[in-house]
Design a protein that fits this description.
- The structure is a homodimer of 805-residue chains.
- The first copy, chain A, is mostly helical and 805 residues long.
- The first copy, chain A, is built from 25 helices and no strands.
- The N and C termini of chain A lie far apart (59 Å).
- The interface between A and B is large, with 81 and 82 residues.
Chain lengths: 805, 805
């Protein structure tokens, strides 16, 4: 403590009174000297790498060619998009990093982010390995399904396949997170630097950096599943005499989805707690108590706050979207396979591989969208800053139009069958339903969170009567905002189901069977622009960080203005992405639920078509499922609250012990705040994460035993099914509530900061800041974690199904 | 405006600087000159009344005697308890009303409460009449069940019965509300006056006043159902050749439950909005902005706040508990009848009338509990104030012990059957499960809302870091507090079901059938001390009001101390009653749900035993059900927020326009605040109320049409079943969350006010006040309305079932 104080008292800090020269904190050094794989890969040994890469590619294409031409197409598109993403990085990295004070700040952020990432993923990987052992153990002692047995699959093979898929999913999910953070900690300073020149250029850099990680994340999800699929296909000799049918193959991939969602859950929890604890803590003392602006260099928690944007928003969202896409692809593949089997379609591979193709096209059309955002304005520059939202929206519209075209094309290519010649058209309409649903979700979220519309203005008005009415109004707004999305989702489930149902596909008894697959196609439609959506999402935290760097390095007001506009747009895109994510999660959970019932039926060797909530135990399962959502949200929020209190106490301590900070005479100890937040969020992520993983297993296992003693067949599986279903419904509503309330509070504050209702510094603004603080853990910790939780519950029950039987 | 100012400037107000002599407001006079039925009934024409009463009693007993000796027993107990309640009123009214300044305040409160009650129930009764017409119309054009047809029941009779039951239920519910309010506006001033003498006497008056309305409410629910049952029995010639079976009779009573819950919903909504809008509005300007204490006579909204306690807590809670008990008795009677029919029990009346007997005993043992609280301390007075909670708790323990005894007795008396000689013992155990559940609920609520325990202390600690962390911590606490009650409910549903299942009762195929009835008996066990619980609940607002009167009439500190202690105890008992209410609602909803399925099966003439949530439309029904809860809560909270803002603006206006108020030189215009709150809450209660009533009907009807066109049988009924089930689960969780969070915030503030963490006036206290403000609409508007909503959904679907088929 003493020599820190001495450091702080050194002369130089007093010389340049508006900033501190060295933001890099010594205290954090032990953590940050990290082996940077990516740098090694990109720097040295380029030739060896190239040879290895070509060899690998050759093997992959060989296996792909032996599986299906569709797989070869998917591989090609993915590899092209990887090449494109390498071009995007090169382009972003070639931009200048600005003056040294910016670089120093950026370095401090990068050190903090990479240090936390390394520790966090160290913890996560240990837990993943432990879980892999558990899965291995379960699968070695369980029975196989009759189909699997008849195809000569052995227990050990099945166990190995599931564990390998789980670990690969976990690894890819980790890489997806890392990529998101890797580019954002490099792009932020380049955006700040570009903001000194032109708003348009800054926008372009942020979009391209976001585009890089979006292409990598989506491409990796697609190619990972495609490689697994092709490998299993060739290895198990699928479709040859006496071995497995191709329609049963997708069920072997569920481990991948579970691995992905397992890592994403902890990434989102840890990152979410980190970012919001730092943010809330910094704001409570900085903005509210000391009255200094956001991202002011005098605030000891400011670097932790900026680090949080990267580990919370970039890394976690990368992992989240990765697992969303992976889970949805796998569940749609399972449903496609099941339907193809029931309808005895001659070549089922089109139905099974359809999701992979849709996402390959997603990569193509999103790239077009990303590149449509140019560095120079189209006409002569009239106003200094164009509306960046309009530019992004234009790109989105282009992507949407292209997606309608490619979706129609794909359905005609892959879903055409002699048995029902017009079925593909019905499925194309299902896709359209999905695309419209996505658009409606984006619009509804905008309506409830943008201050151009009524709800946020009413919320801002409620702040004039104090903190209390602001919170009441925000909570009501959030609760109310669940209604329209639920109506949209309900409409799209029912209509997609009926479009599929009437597609003309029938099983051997003549019953229509396409309904569920129709819902799957609608989900695919919704996700058909995922890469562009993810680009817009990643754009937000990069712009936010750039703004922070600009503020901390005390750039002129005009530069700050540019990054402020970008930041505000980023807030809106972040909110809309969440709406989009929860909408697709709602649709996907319904698919995963069906896949679970198929899986149970296959293992139990009896039909499992109903979940009857009139049975008391099943009703209890539902109660427990909904309760899980409430408890999980509680723990996620209180984790932020507790960690934020630690930050507040530390920041208060520094302000008291180092009175010179406020006059720029002493340097705050940024490193200590970073270290406190990092260790606290690692500690706090365990409890909610463990709850999510342990409770469905425990409930299923307990009721299995109860069912055994009371002679109730399949009781465990039924109770888990109800738990899953109720948790999904409650989770969707709770996530919508948390996300929208948080977003609305944030923007109500921003609206008041534009000068409305008294503007900055008024009592009304103070009340709005309280709302914003409350909204932070809602919208960035608990809400997004619930998206992941919903899908993780579905995948964990799929993988763990054998122990409920 | 001008002459108001002139009035305010009159001399006398300046003479006695600490209070205002005339609290009765002229502005409100037109509303308050109300025809007071009760006064007329109790005052003049006593002999005529007596003769009429005896005549009525004679008829009732004659009908009862023709039905069953059990009915005669029920009648006798109810009438005795009515006599007892008349004694209690006389006793309470015989107490002195204290000095004139107290009487004046009390009169102003009474005028406000009765005026609002009259307008509110005017609106409600118009809506009830409209709904009665709709029901009549539906029942005139629907088919009867085969059993009903074979028993010679005609459509017009069935329609008349349902409508008559509905209207009687609505009327009794209204009277229950009125009785609660009637006594509380009279007892409050007597408690204040007694508090000048002794804490113990004040406590006794409050308890006996609460006991009066509790006995009336419970007694009326029981006798109302008993009279309906006996009348229908005699009128329809039940059990005679060729007419209706007694086991089908309870299904005719559902209208009564629906009428009760319909009125209770609007009573709770209107009253809840009134009380909390006034409270929040008064606190926001008074406490937070002007820094004057709670219930200070200078606050223009103070009379509205005190009126709110009566119309919100007393009247609404009376109606709420009335409908709880009515709905639960009816559903248990239906289940008892169904089971008796399946098991071909020789004399089914024991099983059907069991709930009525349990509640008759409830009246007896609760009276013992109420009278066990004596006016004088047992030993010599050592401390000036004993812990009133301990006294109430002692009474509760006595009641609980007695209830275990009477419950065992009743099961042996009524549920003994030759077919399964040990069944009664299993059912007695079910009752014990229920009693333990009630006790556990009370304990859990206390743990989460009492500041003697960890959670509230943590919440108070979170207030030290500001408004934001206080809210985050409160929300997490509320969300977390749902876990234990859900586990308890789950355990009791499963164990009561299994106790019933293994009771030895079997249907004609030898399948065990007692499971559901076991759950019903557990619910009865939980409610077997309802009258005592209601007494403790009513005690709260009376004490609160007494405190307000003491404060406003500027009594010495020692008197205020006594009412403060009573008020704090009232807060705890209020919170625990809510836990108890939601627990019993959870159990009861499961019964009502089964009754609904029986009803649909009877009408559709085919088995309806499953609600399969794997069907997309049924899943959508579930989604819509959960959404209904969120939207309803949103609208209930925002209604309070909006009305509170009106109050805040009015109070601010008065403080600005009448600067003399703060120095007691000008009198505030209480009447205007009362009028504003009254008209706003009547306006605001319509939207959420209409949502609750219209949405299940609309959803059921829409999906019935969809089912008709797609050939899906019973689709409407299935979707409504899922909607009901999901709404119940989400409703339980949401209500637990809202109630507990609100209670905890309230007590965290109280804890700080004891001097902890800086005490009154500190920054920490301000943050805690914000939390308390937010918690107000949570715990007293949205939360309790959800209890009613859950049961109203169940009864509305029961009554409206014909239009979903």
């Amino acid at each position: 403590m003493d020599d820190e104080l001495e450091n702080g008292n050194l002369g130089p800090y007093a010389d340049r009174p508006r900033t501190f020269p060295n933001m890099r904190s010594k205290a954090y050094n032990p953590l940050v000297r990290t082996l940077n794989i990516f740098r090694i890969l990109m720097g040295i040994n380029f030739r060896v790498l190239l040879i290895l890469l070509f060899l690998g590619l050759g093997v992959v294409f060989y296996i792909g060619a032996r599986t299906s031409p569709i797989i070869v197409f998917v591989f090609s598109v993915c590899i092209m998009s990887f090449l494109l993403s390498i071009y995007l990085t090169k382009w972003v990295l070639s931009k200048d990093e600005g003056p040294p004070e910016m670089v120093q700040i950026s370095d401090a952020i990068r050190d903090g982010a990479e240090g936390f990432f390394r520790t966090q993923y160290g913890t996560i990987s240990k837990m993943a390995l432990l879980l892999a052992l558990v899965i291995l153990f379960i699968y070695l002692f369980r029975n196989l399904t009759p189909q699997q047995e008849s195809s000569g699959l052995r227990r050990s093979t099945s166990a190995f396949i599931t564990v390998a898929a789980f670990l690969l999913g976990a690894l890819c999910s980790g890489i997806a997170g890392y990529v998101g953070m890797w580019v954002s900690v490099r792009a932020n300073v380049r955006v700040s630097s570009a903001a000194r020149r032109s708003a348009r250029e800054a926008l372009q850099i942020a979009v391209r950096a976001g585009g890089f990680s979006a292409l990598v994340v989506v491409g990796m999800a697609v190619i990972g599943i495609a490689i697994l699929y092709a490998t299993f296909y060739v290895w198990l000799g699928v479709d040859s005499q006496g071995s497995m049918k191709v329609t049963d193959l997708p069920l072997l991939l569920v481990g991948y989805g579970f691995g992905a969602s397992f890592v994403a859950l902890f990434a989102q929890l840890g990152g979410g707690i980190y970012t919001k604890a730092a943010d809330v803590g910094a704001d409570l003392v900085g903005k509210v108590e000391q009255g200094i602006p956001e991202d002011d260099p005098r605030n000891p928690a400011v670097i932790a706050d900026l680090v949080g944007d990267n580990v919370g928003d970039c890394a976690a969202r990368g992992a989240d979207l990765f697992e969303s896409i992976a889970a949805e692809i796998i569940s749609a593949m399972i449903l496609g396979g099941t339907m193809a089997r029931h309808c005895k379609i001659e070549d089922p591979s089109g139905f099974i591989l359809f999701p992979l193709v849709i996402h390959s096209f997603d990569l193509v059309i999103s790239s077009v969208g990303i590149f449509s955002i140019r560095g120079k304005p189209d006409s002569s520059l009239k106003s200094p800053i164009e509306d960046p939202m309009a530019i992004l929206q234009k790109g989105y519209s282009l992507t949407i139009v292209l997606s309608v075209l490619t979706f129609g094309l794909s359905t005609r290519w892959l879903l055409y069958t002699e048995r029902a010649p017009s079925a593909w058209f019905n499925f194309a309409l299902c896709g359209l339903v999905g695309i419209i649903t996505a658009y409606a979700f984006v619009w509804i979220t905008k309506y409830y969170t943008d201050y151009k519309h009524e709800p946020v203005r009413t919320l801002a008005l409620a702040s004039t009567t104090g903190h209390g009415t602001n919170i009441i109004a925000g909570v009501s707004l959030g609760l109310e905002s669940t209604a329209l999305p639920v109506l949209v989702i309900s409409l799209s489930i029912v209509s997609a189901f009926w479009l599929g149902h009437t597609s003309g596909l029938v099983d051997k008894d003549g019953n229509p069977t396409g309904g569920l697959f129709g819902t799957a196609v609608a989900t695919m439609g919704m996700l058909s622009t995922a890469a562009y959506i993810l680009t817009m999402d990643m754009f937000g935290p990069i712009a936010d960080n750039a703004g922070g760097i600009v503020e901390m390095s005390q750039q002129p007001e005009s530069v700050r203005e540019i990054t402020d506009v970008l930041d505000a747009v980023g807030n809106t895109t972040k909110a809309t992405t969440k709406g989009f994510a929860i909408g697709s999660a709602a649709l996907a959970s319904f698919l995963l639920f069906s896949a679970y019932m198929d899986e149970v039926a296959a293992f139990a060797q009896e039909p499992f078509k109903q979940v009857d909530i009139a049975i008391p135990e099943v009703f209890v399962g539902g109660l427990l499922g909904s309760m899980l959502i409430f408890l999980f949200s509680a723990w996620a929020c209180s984790a932020v609250g507790r960690t934020a209190q630690e930050v507040v106490n530390e920041v208060r301590r520094q302000f008291i012990e180092r009175p010179g900070i406020m006059d720029y005479k002493e340097k705050p100890d940024y490193g200590r705040c970073v270290a406190i937040v990092a260790s606290a969020s690692l500690r706090e992520m365990i409890k909610p994460g463990a709850l999510a993983i342990v409770s469905p297993i425990a409930v299923g296992f307990l009721f299995r035993i109860l069912g055994y003693y009371t002679g109730h067949l399949l009781l465990g599986a039924k109770v888990v099914a109800a738990m899953l279903m109720f948790a999904t419904v409650s989770g969707i509503l709770m996530a919508l509530f948390l996300n929208t309330a948080g977003g609305a509070w944030d923007n109500a504050k921003k609206y008041i900061e534009t000068g409305a209702l008294g503007g900055k510094g008024s009592e009304c603004h103070k009340a709005a800041v309280t709302g914003d603080t409350v909204g932070d853990p809602f919208k960035d910790t608990a809400g997004p974690s619930l998206h992941v939780l919903i899908k993780m519950l579905a995948t964990i029950t799929l993988v763990m199904a054998p122990i409920f039987l």
